[in-house]
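ARCHIVE CARD
CATEGORY: sequence design from structure
SOURCE FIELD: tokenized fold
FIELD CONTENT:
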């Protein structure tokens, strides 16, 4: 018996509990998994056997790739596009304990993405007061 998509989403929330209490919301034909308003993961390919995709950033991509995780890609207007998400390692899908370091890694990336970006210096000429 295969788990229904909403049951799989709830299971993934339980797996990611090390990052905090998670919720799953319908999003783009799949689910977004978040804690405290921060998106940690996505569930996609629900009709084909769902995959949990975890948020990654420039500093963590190599960690996911070293673990054999695949980057999330999709087709749009005849081109392959990607997002900053990687498949969860197969072995981490077995227990919350095994998923904990991956959940915390995804949380760190989500927290960093929430931080306001540093403002670039304005290229506009500043008033001199002589106007």
């Amino acid at each position: 018996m295969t788990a229904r998509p909403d049951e799989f989403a709830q299971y993934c929330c339980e797996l990611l509990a090390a990052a905090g209490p998670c919720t799953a919301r319908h999003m783009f034909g799949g689910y977004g998994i978040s804690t405290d308003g921060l998106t940690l993961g996505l569930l996609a390919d629900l009709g084909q056997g769902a995959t949990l995709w975890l948020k990654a950033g420039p500093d963590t991509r190599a960690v996911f790739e070293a673990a054999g995780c695949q980057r999330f890609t999709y087709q749009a207007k005849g081109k392959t596009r990607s997002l900053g998400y990687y498949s969860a390692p197969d072995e981490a899908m077995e227990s919350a304990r095994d998923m904990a370091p991956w959940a915390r890694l995804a949380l760190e990336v989500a927290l960093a993405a929430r931080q306001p970006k540093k403002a670039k210096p304005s290229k506009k000429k500043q008033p001199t007061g002589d106007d």
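CARD ANNOTATION: Residues 5-114 form a domain with the Yope Regulator; Chain: A, fold (CATH 3.30.1460.30). Residues 96-114 form the longest helix (19 residues).
SHELF: design records, drawer C
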